[in-house]
Amino acid sequence: MSNKPNNKQLKSEIRRQIRADRNNFSPEYQNQAANQLIKQLCQQDLFNQAKRIACFLSFDGEISTQPIIQHLLSNEKYCYLPKLKPFKPNRLWFMPYDHTSQMIENRYAIPEVDEGVNKAIAPSQLDLVLVPLVAFDLNCNRLGMGGGFYDATFAHFKSQKKRPLFVGLAYSKQQIDDLPNDPWDLPLDGVCTDKKFYRF
C-alpha cells in the first residue's frame, strides 16, 4: 500500500501553506502589488478589448481587486461580481456592479450585490473572467479555495470554442512549480501577477 499523498491531500497542504503566507504579507507590499497588478493588466489586449468583465472582491488575503474595479467603472466597461447560488452544486451568478450597487454579505462574509438574480448576466455573454486563486503553475493549472464554484459554473465551456477568457489574479509569490490537477479543474488562459502576465 502506497503512502504517497493523493491530489486532494497535496492540494490541501499547498492551500494551507500559501494562504498562511499570503495573510502575512505587509500592508505596504499588498498595496504595491495591487497597483502593479492593474498596470500589468492594462498592458494586455485581452483586457483592454473586453467590455463585459467578471471580477471579484478580494477575501482571505487575496491580492486586492479594488484598483481593477475602479478602472473598469471609470473606463466604460461593464463589471460583474459573483453571487453564490444557495443550493448544490456550488455555482455562481454574475451580477452587474457599479458604485450605486447595494451589497449584502453571503455565508462566507463576502459582500455580494443585493439584487434579484434575474439581473445576472449569462456566463456565455462575458468576455473575460478574472478568477481568484490560491496557487498557480505555468501549465495553466489553478488551485482555488476548494469550494469548486468556478469549476462548476464554467465546466460546460471546456468543450466550446466560444467562451470567455479566464485569467487568474495572484501575487507572484503564489506561483509554484507543479500543481496537482484533476479533470474537473478550470484551466486558465492566463495569470496576471504584480510582476508579470503569463499567457497560456
Oligomer: single chain
Task: Report low-confidence residues grouped into runs of 5 or more.
Answer: none
CATH topology: Rossmann fold
| Major sheet: arrangement of strands | 3-2-1-6-9-10-11
Tally the structural domains.
1
Task: Give me the count of strands.
Answer: 11
Q: What is the CATH class?
A: Alpha Beta
Specify Rg, calculated over alpha carbons.
16 Å
CATH homology-level superfamily: NagB/RpiA/CoA transferase-like
Structural class: alpha/beta
Helix/strand order, N-terminal first: HHHEHEEEEEEEHEEE
What's the architecture in CATH terms?
A: 3-Layer(aba) Sandwich
The largest pleated sheet is described as: 7 strands, mixed
Residue fraction in strands: 15-25%
- Helix count, per DSSP? 5
What is the general shape? globular
Descriptive tags:
seven-stranded mixed beta sheet, Rossmann fold, two-stranded antiparallel ribbon, alpha/beta, single chain
Describe the structure.
The protein has 200 residues and is α/β, with parallel strands linked by helices. It has a single domain (7-199), classed as 3-Layer(aba) Sandwich (Rossmann fold), CATH 3.40.50. It has helices spanning 7-22, 27-42, 45-48, 66-74, 149-153, and strands at 52-54, 78-84, 92-97, 103-105, 111-113, 128-132, 135-136, 142-143, 165-169, 190-192, 197-199. Strands 3-2-1-6-9-10-11 form a seven-stranded mixed β-sheet. A two-stranded antiparallel sheet has the order 4-5. It has a two-stranded antiparallel sheet with strand order 7-8. Helix 2 (27-42) runs parallel beside helix 4 (66-74). The protein is globular and about 45 Å long. The relative contact order is 0.19. The mean pLDDT is 93.
